[in-house]
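re the bet — no i am not wrong, look at it urself. input seq straight from the record:
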Amino acid sequence: MNSKELVLFSAIGEEVPRIPVVPLIGIHAARISRINPIEALFKSSEKQANSLIYAFNYYKYDGIFHYMDLTVEAEAIGCKIEEKGGVPTVVKGANIDEVEKNLPLNPKKDGRLHIFSDTIRRVRELRDIPVGAYITGPFTLTGHLMGVDTLMLSLLEDEEYVKEVMDVCTDLVLPYLDELVDSGADIITILEPTASSSIISPEFFKKFVVRYVKKIVKSIYMRDVLSCLHICGNTTPIIEDMCDTKANILSIDGDVDIMYAIKKANRKNVAIFGNIHPTRILLDGNTEDVRNAVKGCIKVAHDTLFILSSGCEVPYDAPEENILEMVKIAKTMLRD
C-alpha cells in the first residue's frame, strides 16, 4: 500500500496496515533544505516545492502540505501585509465595498495565490503521495478584513453585518479552492485559528462559523477530494460542532484531549488528524518525549479513523531528531 492510499483510506475508515504519519512540515522545510531567505519561499513556488520535497525525502513521512500562509487570500483582496521574521502577516484590513467590486478572485493573477497552486503542481510530480493545500476559513478571513478587535465587537453589536462580510469571504475563496484542486491537491484544509475556543465561545462558533465552513466543505466534496478543518488551541469544547461542518477530517492541536476527540468524531464518521504538541514536544522536547507522545497517540487511536500529525505546523527550529523519531516510531507500530 502506497502512502496516498494509506492516508486517504485512513481518513475514510478503510483497513490499513499502520497509522499514517504526516507532520505539518512547512516553514521547517526551509531550515532543513537551507533555502534562504525565508520570505523567498512564500514568493517562489520553485523554492517552496524544492524545500518541501527535500524535507519529505529526508524525513520519509506519508504526505506533503504546502507552507501555511494565512495571508495569501487577504493580500489578494487588498489587505496590507508585512513580513515578520520572514513570515507574511496581515497588518491592515481592506474596505469590504472595494473587495466586492473586484470579485471574483482570479487565482492565476491576484496576489500570490498562484504561488501555492503552482507549488502543488510541482509537488504533485511525486507519485503515490497525498498532497494537501490550505485555504483561510471565512471567519478568520473576516477578521483580516475588519480587524480582529472590530470583529469581536461586531459579534455583539452588529451580527448581521458580520454575517454579510462572512458571506463575501466564503464565496471569494471558492475559485482559489478550485484552482488548488485542479493543481492536484488531495486534501483541502480550512484554517480557522480565529475561531479557536480561546478566542470565541462555543455559542459564537455555532452561530458564526459552522454554516459558512459547511458551505466550503460542500464545495470541496463536490470536487471529490477530502476536506479537513484545522483550528488552533484547545478545541475540546467544540469538537462536535466542528463535526457538524461535515468535514472529513478534524485537525486538532496539542492541547486537545485526543481520546475525547476521537470518540466524538468517529461517532460521526469523521477522522482525527493530530495531535503531537508542536512546541512542548517537537520543539522543546527530546526524543524520549516524542517517543512517548507518539506511542500514546497511537495506542489511543488503535482501530479508529486517525492520522498522526503535529498539532499545528512544525516550528522552524524544531530539532531534526525529534521529527525523525516521530516518523520512525509511527512506522514501526503496525496494527494487528
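see?? DSSP finds 18 helices and nine strands in the chain. told u. also The CA atoms of residues 159 and 208 lie 9 Å apart. so pay up
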